[in-house]
Amino acid sequence: MKKVEIKTKITVFDSLEELSSSAKNLMNKAIEAKKSAYAPYSKFKVGAAFLLEDGTIVTGNNQENAAYPSGMCAERVAIWKVSSEYPHLKILKLAITASSSAQITREPVAPCGACRQTLSEYELKQKDEIEVYFMGEVGKVIKTDSLLDLLPIAFDKSFL
Ligand code: THU
Description:
The chain is α+β, with helices and mostly antiparallel strands. The protein has helices at residues 21-34, 74-85, 113-126; strands spanning 11-13, 44-52, 57-61, 91-100, 131-135, 141-144. A hairpin with a 4-residue loop joins strand 2 (44-52) and strand 3 (57-61).
């Protein structure tokens, strides 16, 4: 028996202002997309924006449903738009932001586990890392260089 320590790596920015102009622009698109989220039940709005290799930006937001599990997260709404409309373009970056009507969300909101799994499929498929930036409504922004930094020991097609 042996214990194995698995480390991950994040970069923390104090605010949006510290990001590169490309990442800041992408986060601003996620902030804009968040406004159209359909979240009447949780009142927690999430926006996501992908930057593709040709400069195209694709956005999405969470879509809830009275039958709760039928709703969908912003990240998956957006990634499926990317994969269905631009299947041959590589994804460079993803920006995510969220806010609640109950309080100001000051901590960076990380993508949920199901979104990490879904997103990892596309990073592995394109064989190039996707930078991920996430924040709350205000405050710090966390960046990972790769989706897999958020999902160590991922399940992938090699097991099938
Ligand atoms: N949500 C997202 O859109 N992305 C995540 O990664 C976490 C959660 C949404 C789903 C639901 O509409 C609301 O946030 C509350 O969970």
